[in-house]
Design a protein that fits this description.
The protein is α/β, with parallel strands linked by helices. The chain folds into 3 domains: 175 residues, 3-Layer(bba) Sandwich (FAD/NAD(P)-binding domain); 117 residues, FAD/NAD(P)-binding domain; 84 residues, Enolase-like, domain 1. 24% of the residues lie in helices and 29% in strands. The protein has 11 helices and 26 strands. A 5-stranded parallel beta sheet has the order 3-2-1-7-19. Helix 1 runs parallel beside helix 8. The longest helix is centred in the last third of the chain and has 15 residues. The protein is globular, with a radius of gyration of 23 Å.
């Protein structure tokens, strides 16, 4: 049956990545007759930024980065406008303007513009050839090219991205240093005890760390670039990779009147903004966190996919609610695997941690409970249970009857739970 909103509706999507692709799928699931147009600042088919560190490490070929090929757009009857930025939205008239002044009308609009890396300061043209962030294929290729010759490499930020880049480009004969603002690696994800295990593994590979360093800018020194810290140091390198976080690409919505933005574009459980017929999904939006119930940006691939699909279904007139997302990351570096799901640090209140660690074996496990329900986990080197943990979080299962067993068998969660099931 065709939905009430379907027919010759014009669906317009800005962005062409996880959220956009899944919105296309969602729309076509319910409506085969509307038109779909995708606008992207980038030129090629949709690809996964998640895979770029593997491409830099030459573990996968370039073609593996792409999540869809041209047949996807053809089969889903999508018109693509690639290599052009959308620059303004005229919400009352339902128009979008592109950078070349083209004007496109829409009945339903999805903003799926994602996020862009943050730099500590603007990078001048003379410095630009030595400094890179990592988000796009172009960034990845710049890093591959520069890392080929570089003997001294500086990574700014010991977060997920910084550590993945270190894993991808470290090689014998290269002096690789990671400068980090906090006191330990992955400060937003793990505690100092778990961080020490990861740091040791990287140091074993010859990587050095400088903690409590805030890079505030860059300057050129001969054939090298210097990262200048607030502590007054000048850290010289042939290549600097910056991984200190991302900002949502809300600029387009800011220029248009009326769309509510806090940190990201504020959306409801149906991915709708406060403006009629305008939706947002993925890293640009502030959706519901499943665990806390609060609105926040949840910058990960699976959240963008699910939000995108939800947006697409709703744009096609099918009412579908998003129950909320949670942060989840898997980091595989230097033979270590770290999985973080949901909350990774106690946030006060009733949150308690069941913890086990074996520094000699490089094993660390922490499960966070709130009122006897699992709300998060950090699993270093024993992550087989990550799917089970996510499932228990999503089902809000009270695990009080298993708690004691779980505390005794922290590395064998499946067994601890199934024994009593
Ligand atoms: C190196 C790296 C590793 C990552 N690892 C993980 C991981 O392990 N797990 C995980 O879950 N997530 C990971 N992520 C995050 C994940 O890639 C993002 O959450 C996901 O890509 C978000 O998808 P999105 O569709 O919201 O936006 P994006 O992927 O950011 O895409 C937005 C698109 O919109 C386009 N665009 C922006 N503005 C405009 C405009 N004005 N006009 C036209 N087009 C525009 C951009 O060019 C871009 O193509 C990683 C990201 C990076 C960079």
């Amino acid at each position: 049956m065709r939905s009430k909103l379907s027919g010759a509706k014009r669906q317009l999507i800005i962005g062409n990545s996880a959220a956009a692709i899944n919105a296309i799928r969602g729309i076509r699931e319910k409506d085969n007759s509307c038109s779909i147009t995708v606008i992207s600042a980038e030129k090629g088919n949709a690809y996964s930024p998640v895979l770029t560190p593997y491409y830099i490490a030459r573990k996968i070929p370039k073609k593996t980065l792409f999540v869809v090929d041209h047949r996807f757009y053809r089969n889903h009857k999508v018109k693509r406008i690639l290599g052009k930025k959308a620059v303004a939205i005229d919400a009352p008239r339902q128009w979008v303007y592109l950078e070349d002044n083209t004007r496109l009308g829409y009945d339903y609009l999805l903003i799926a513009t994602g996020a862009s890396p943050v730099l500590p300061a603007p990078v001048r043209a003379s410095i630009e050839p030595y400094v890179s962030t990592l988000r796009t294929i172009q960034d990845a290729e710049k890093i591959i090219e520069l890392a080929r010759q570089a003997k001294e490499i500086l990574i700014v930020g010991a977060g997920l991205l910084g550590l993945q880049v270190a894993n991808a480009i470290n090689k014998p004969g290269v002096k690789l240093t990671i400068a980090e603002y906090a006191k330990h690696v992955l400060p937003e994800k793990i505690d100092a005890e778990c961080a020490a295990l990861i740091q040791r593994r990287l140091e074993d590979q010859g990587i050095s760390f400088l903690f409590e360093r805030a890079v505030k800018g860059f300057k050129k020194k001969g054939s090298k670039v210097c990262a200048v810290t607030e502590q007054g140091e000048e850290l010289k390198a042939n290549l600097v990779v910056v991984g200190i976080g991302v900002n949502p690409n809300t600029e387009l919505a800011t220029r248009s009147s009326g769309i509510e933005i806090k940190e990201g574009i504020v959306i409801d459980d149906f991915m709708k903004t406060n403006v009629e017929n305008i939706f947002a999904a993925g890293d640009v939006s502030e959706g519901k966190n499943f665990i806390s119930g609060q609105r926040q940006i949840i910058p990960n691939w699976s959240n963008a996919c699910l939000q995108g699909r939800t947006a697409g279904l709703n744009m096609a007139g099918h009412r579908m609610k998003y129950e909320g997302g949670m942060t989840e990351n898997i980091l595989s570096i230097f033979g270590l695997t770290l999985a973080t799901i949901g909350l990774s640090k106690p946030t006060g209140g009733n949150v308690e941690a069941l913890k086990y660690s074996n520094p000699q074996k490089g094993i660390y496990r922490k499960i966070l409970l709130d009122d006897n329900k699992i709300v998060g986990a950090v699993l270093l080197d024993k992550m087989e249970d990550s799917g089970l943990i996510k499932n228990l979080i999503q089902n809000r299962l009270d695990i009080s009857i298993w708690k004691e067993k779980l505390a005794r068998a922290p590395l064998d969660m499946g067994k601890a739970l199934s024994a009593l099931w």
